[in-house]
Amino acid sequence: MEWDHFDYSRTREMRNKFLPLEKVKAFVDLRNGQKLIDIGAGDGFYSLSFASENPNSVITALEPGRNGSVLIKKQISELGIKNIRIIEESACEDHDYSPYDKVFFSNVFHDLDCREELLKNMSESMKKGSEAIFIEFRKEVEAGPPQHIRISESGLESMLKRSGFRLVAEEKLPLHYMHKYIKE
Predict the structure, then answer these.
(1) How far apart are CA 45 and CA 21, in angstroms?
(2) How large is the average pLDDT for residues 161-181?
(3) DSSP character at residue 149
(4) Are 39 and 91 in contact (CB under 8 A)?
(5) Is 169 in contact with 131 (CB distance < 8 Å)?
(6) pLDDT value, residue 12
(7) Residue 174: enclosing H or E segment and its boundaries?
(8) How many domains does the chain have?
(9) pLDDT tens track for 35-71
(10) Where are the extended beta strands (E) located within 120-184?
């Protein structure tokens, strides 16, 4: 997928309608001072929310698309947020996840061609006890990405289990599911 030309307005509309921010924040449960990386941060919606509510946390927005990075930088400037850093790279690049307490994916994992390699990289570099949080479209709902690229809840759990993660929390929303895994 060509991320430099991605239209974030549709994503924003769907997110506002079907992913209540307060539910997502409660599920993620970021504590002030923890470090979080937002994989495929898009327009920065979640990164900005986490950063503004947790001023002692460091939030990293990993976003490969130029349009997304520009949107995030603009909002950081307008809001005066100081605790977000932006990495303009693909999630498929090797990254060191050891600094992070939480790795967050919102409606992006299904788009990645490198899922197995990414999970291997996360497993090898994340600290024991750190968390990986996923929001994905449910397989059975009509809205969302094409059915053939969606990941079922059991499929996601199986992938994460093979990579050394254990499911510790889950929640279903009208169109999505949220899973939280801990690195063992």
Answers:
(1) 10
(2) 97
(3) G
(4) yes
(5) no
(6) 64
(7) none
(8) 1
(9) 999 999 988 999 999 999 999 999 999 999 888 889 8
(10) 131-137, 165-172, 176-183
**What is the spatial distance between Cα 50 and Cα 175, in angstroms, rounded to a whole number?**
23
The encoded tokens of residue 163 equal 């990579």
**pLDDT tens-digit profile of 94-107?**
999 999 999 999 99
Query: Which run of H or E residues covers position 92?
Result: none
CATH number (domain holding residue 59): 3.40.50.150
Residues 6+ apart with CB under 8 A from 128: 183, 184
Which residues does 141 contact at the CB level (< 8 Å), separation at least 6? 174, 175
Hey, how many other C-beta atoms are within 10 angstroms of the C-beta on 152? Answer: 13
The boundaries of the domain holding residue 24 are: 3-183
Pull the structure tokens for residue 12: 């924003």
Q: Which of 160, 102, 104, 100 is nearest to 131 (CA)?
A: 102
The residue to which tokens 């997304």 are assigned:
68
Asked if 168 and 180 count as a contact pair (C-beta separation under 8 A), the reply is yes
Contact 52, 32 (CB under 8 A): no
